Here is the input.
Amino acid sequence: MATASEHVDVLIVGAGLSGIDAAYHLQRAFPARTYAILEMREDLGGTWDLFRYPGIRSDSDMFTLGYRFKPWLGEKAIADGDSILAYVRDTAVENGIDEHIRYRHKVVRAEWSSADNRWTVTVDHGGETVVMTANFLFSCSGYYRYDEGYTPDFAGTERFPGPIIHPQHWPGRVEVEGKRVVVIGSGATAVTLGPALVEQGAHVTMLQRSPSYIISMPARDGFADRARKFLPARTAYALARAKNVGLSTLMYQLSQRYPKRMRAWIRGWQERWLPKGYDIDTHFTPSYKPWDQRLCLSPNGDLFRAIRKGQLELVTDRIDTFTENGLRLESGRELDADIIITATGLNLVPFGGVELVVDSRKVHLPETMSYKAMMLSDVPNFAFVIGYTNASWTLKADLVCEYVVRLLRHMDAHGYVRATPVRDPSVGTAPFLNFEPGYVLRALDILPKQGDRAPWKLHMNYLRDLPKLRYGKIDDPAMRFDRARAS
Here is the structure.
């Protein structure tokens, strides 16, 4: 084994929203502790630096997607990607976090030694191997592959002469004015791309295999705008954040408890936004209940306005094959296209694909159980951030970071060197994410499990997690703490 080049107290993997969040909490709580952030790409920002397609924006309001400790001061509640990236970069620079980031450092393997009570991390840095050690490993790398989006195996793609583009690999400037563009997909990316391409002068057809729930939301938050006029920025931000957390939680709970009523409400809203007589049953009524998959947002109703103006057509059908002119559908209809965009989703990969090893035994993730949705059974001194599927990612990231700080303080206070969640054999198992989009269903067999009761059960509820993670007891019967080295 190569000799370690450096040791740090905490090693953070990923310099996106979560990684910067983790670094802020860590250095604020422990000024004397050493840490480093390993980022596989050439810049920070994660998702917001990677995706460059037209119209890229948040699908959560910025008062909840923003950090708890740094007010969002932008005018728009649904912000564009460049503004979000600038916000993340400003946070890193203002707090000196950028000085701790090692770019083009891809973590390949992390091996825990109970004899040494530390992680040995193998890193690929531009083709060279770098080895680092750390007392605690914190994965903030998200859950999807950055180097590869998901594209189904479409028939006849070789026949189509024009560009076929996945939004995750947008090739810089694409000239679309006057072009016929077909966007395949019905999720947040497609709902964002369609209106943005219309604004650039394209003739857009959105082709979906099945509908999604899509609702309009104001691009600006009127409550936040009014609060800013009379209150300090931090107070106004906190109030807007609390208001939006409450509203989003209420909408999710109503959707789960009264799905028929919520479906009717959503349909009523859409009837007001769409042309009279529009076929909502075919194009806007999914087979699943509201919030079984994430609701898509249309800022200021941009998608609905484009449909009303005849600038965007929504087609619900299945693809038979690509052709020399575009696409032939199973119904027999032909869609002519100059450019085809496959907004068909993501490929999930837990913890950036890092191979985890504990005392020479490889960790097989489906055999592990997630503890409080942030640690793994029988894996010491390791935490991760996976955000909410029904709310802003950062709401969960903030709570996880605060919990990790509390955990480290507890270990310091009692002289512990190791914290390991230990699974009770009587705890039943369930899929890690109770969520139905394709990218989740395709990855269930590579993800950890969750349990049927606390602290192993995953709750997609910020208000429920808040008291437990921010204030709850650290000394949990399911957590084993060790002072001495393993014999």
